[in-house]
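### Sample
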Amino acid sequence: MKETDREAVATAVQRVAGMLQRPDQLDKVEQYRRREARKKASVEARLKAAIQSQLDGVRTGLSQLHNALNDVKDIQRSLADVSKDWRQGINTIESLKDVKDAVVRHSQLAAAVENLKNIFSVPEIVRETQDLIEQGALLQAHRKLMDLECSRDGLMYEQYRMDSGNTRDMSLIHSYFGSTQGLSDELAKQLWMVLQRSLVTVRRDPTLLVSVVRIIEREEKIDRRILDRKKQTSFVPPGRPKNWKENMFKILDKTVITRIEGTQADTRESDKMWLVRHLEIIRKYVLDDLIVAKNLMVQCFPPHYEIFKNLLSMYHQALTIRMQELASEDLEANEIVSLLTWVLNTYTSTEMMGNVELAPEVDVGTLEPLLSPNVVSELLDTYMSTLTSNIIAWLRKALETDKKDWIKETEPEADQDGYYQTTLPAIVFQMFEQNLQVAAQISEDLKTKVLVLCLQQMNSFLSRYKDEAQLYKEEHLRNRQHPHCYVQYMIAIINNCQTFKESIVSLKRKYLKNEVEDGMSLGQPSMDGILDAIAKEGCSSLLEEVFLDLEQHLNELMTRKWLLGSNAVDIICVTVEDYFNDFAKIKKPYKKRMTAEAHRRVVVEYLRAVMQKRISFRSPEERKEGAERMVREAEQLRFLLYLEVSTLVSKYPDIRDDHIGALLALRGDASRDMKQTIIETLEQGPTQVNPNYVPIFREIIVPSLNVAKLLK
């Protein structure tokens, strides 16, 4: 207490010191005193009020504790009285056992009396129920069945309550109502039959379907009520729960599966298009069924059944199973295409699940794929392998067919421009087109793969085509009388090369995207090279054919017979013109090359005759006659044979000194000064060569003679 007083005094001193720090504050001492007095009075008043409140609370608490003590004493006395009464009532309860048994018997008898009418009329109700089921009056039949089951279940429950271990009485009741379970099963069969035909029934007699659903809903409510009672009494009547709603969905699921499987009307042996027909029937049936379910069946079922959603799931699952079964079969290439096209495209298209009549309930984006990516990949691998074999076989067969045409006695057909051709390019690229169109129905990736495959096989095919054309030529050379239309068919082979080129470019442009083409090599340069080689070899063989016919007449050139008036050049020109009537049916650019090469070969052969020293002019008259004849023939051949050395060297830079020597020997009048001029001209060499110049003299071999020997 003293410590508290000291702390209070110290605090007061500090407060007073704080108030009287300046001299002018001394005038306010009285004011400060009154203010502190008021504060003191206020604090004392609050303390008194708080203490009084605490005292009132303590007084109230003591009063309540006193009352509680009295209550506890009263309860203690009451418990003592209850204990005494309980001990006295044990004997009384034991003496009421007979009363309890009487109450149970009374309850059983009351239940029996309540169901007495039904008990005695069970056989009659069973017959009526059976008749109603046979008549299709399912609702009335179910009402009577419910009455029978209610009577049976009520009696069995009372028996269970009285003596759950008495199986004899339970069996007796069950036996008496034995027909009830049979009626229930029979009614269920009728319900399932209606559900199996529900898609037809809902259009013809929706009331019947509604009745079936009402019956199922009744049974579901009874099942729930019995299961709730089971939690309290552990009693379950026989045949419960029926789970007819669950069975209903099982029946619908089985019906959907059967409907999908039953759409296959044909087999591969009876119809090559069996799979296409099968898939089209599935598409039509599923679409029609789902439209009916969406527009009609949903009106016959409670919303919580979600009947359309469940049916959609059933159809999708059934289709998944069926597609997997089909995929596991040993399918041919066209069947694989049909299956994949249907699974990947048709199924989600507007022709089926994407149909506007199914929107918005069906969202194709949420549907799981009918075939897994692995299965699709395996099918594509099988398809590509089979297609490869088929293309090889088709190309081989097409070539064999074309070869048979080569030996025909009639000329090949001509196109609208008059160029000879065979059907080979059209057959080959029609086959390619068909396979590419089919692949495009599945995916862009498969289309590209098929195009690459076609071009790869085309490359190999062209090598065989080249070999066969060579064999065709060799066979003809062994007997030039056979085949009769060798020239015309060789022209057709040459033209086919140009057609192949154009078709390859067209095929790539049509079926290959630019970005894909840039990222891969499809062997176009290689194929162009092979085709050019075939065409070049064909042109060469045709020219060889020409010059075989001209050989005898070319040998007459620059001989005494020629000088005396042979018409060899006339025959040569007529023969060449005759051949070129056929060569006119060669397509550009091969025709242009062929014409140039033929002209060059005629000139070369003419010059070769000049260079071979077959004749040497003996007199100026002979030289004049020979020169005039050569000028006329050069005009016929559209070629001017210049004998001025400077002109020859400048116009034909591939001319050699032995060629000049042969020409001088032919003239037979070269002086020594002329010979010296020739040496100087040759030493100067040719002027700049034209890049488009086609060599002529390079292929002409001259017998042993040169300018050096000539000048000696």
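The CA atoms of residues 54 and 60 lie 10 Å apart. This sample (Exocyst complex component 3) is used throughout the tutorial notebook.
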